[in-house]
Fold:
Amino acid sequence: MTVQAPDQAAQEVVTAANTELASGALGLPGALMQAVTTIAPAVGLLFSVQFVASLAGVALPLAFLITLLIMLTLAVSVAQLARHLPSAGGYYTYISRTIHPRAGFITAWLFFLYMPLALCVPAVFMSGLVHTELQTAYSVNIPWWVVFLLTVGLVLAVVYRGIKIAARFLMALGLLEILIILALSISGLVDAGPGGVNFSSFNPGNAPSFHGLYLGVVFSLLALTGWEAAAPVAEETENPRRNVPRAVMYSVVLMGLFFTFCAWGLIVGWGTSDVKGFGSAGELPAFILGRHYWGGAWIIVLIAIVNSTLALCTAASIVSTRMWFAMARSGALPAPLAKLHPTFKTPVNAVLLLAIISVPLGLFLGFRVGTQNEYFMMGLVFVLAASWSYIMGNIGVFRFYRREHRDEFRPLLHLVFPLVSTVALVWVVYKSLVPLPAAPVRYAPMIAGSWFALGLVVLFLMNRFGKEEWLLKAGDAAQEHVETPAELALRPTI
Structure:
């Protein structure tokens, strides 16, 4: 047996995944901003507060605070899996490894449905909003599809150039949108509307009803999803076993508190004695408040939404392309999708596939369904597909720690939290479908259900014709690489 000298061992540190991607290119801030921008602070908050307020009334901030607690229980499962399974596959790897490769394939199949849509759907919605607001306020007529194509083109160019460029892009956009929405919310607290500054929003007894508060929590869950996007950049993150779990947990806590505080500032600024007016306003309340506090500079709020959409689309594109890369590497998808750019270390064919899917689909949804209706319809598709991933991840973390890491098993982390959040998610899905919402949103369950069924057919055919060799490798996670301080000094991180 070879014994390593103490001084040599002290100089070597496990820092990065052994992968063909840009190993160790991101630090904790880069991984954290990947998760934060997928949550999309400006878009997630400003497009949810009005509807949630129509349900929870003045208790709008409390609904977000309760949602934070639920999301924390979900994030714990992902963080616990990321500690042992650093991989660009994210949920695909986690579920393949802890439950069964077929379950992992179905999870990735559902990601095919909604992660590429996380590029085109928000871009279409934002483009329609920009068209309407510029035409109304300044009589400037820029067709929505022009804005859409420019948005998608910029995002794909950034993603193509590699994770370091994308991380800097996300850092700048993420910080800007957070500062703008914080400024608007603080303005509401400094110059409060009717009712003044008060803490009635945190008293559940002030909600219209318990049912209303509960529904407010149900529909605010969508606003806080996206934190799991830190997992697919594990192979490009320095010391992924430490930094990816931290990025997941920090993003949930920071964004949950951000949403709670800013929702309170917005409702106080509007006036806690006029919550009905907030919930039924014909225009986005943030625009109305922006004009009230900042006059002609209200356009900054629109800039925050554009900024947030660009960041969301970029982060979601990173998730899609890395997951496809991991699947192609394992054999679940065609091998060309694992091709990397020699300099940028970007899965170039995966980026090309994303463009081929996103551009025509976005134009179809915008022209056929409408720039606003498509957002809410596909938003429900996202909830249904993501819920499967979350629930499977909860089951997986219990099985993984109970069977393979019994010495690390903790009942609260690996049993209670997964069980509580799974029950909550099942109820969320039920309340999202019963009763069915009005068209076109009611088509969302049919879209998600049909896609799920098609995935089962694909699995059956692959099994029937003996094409499941990839299953043996589907749960592989990237191994970590031991680097010396000298190697670390040559590799900058974001």
Q: What stands out?
A: The mean pLDDT is 86. The longest strand covers residues 13-17.
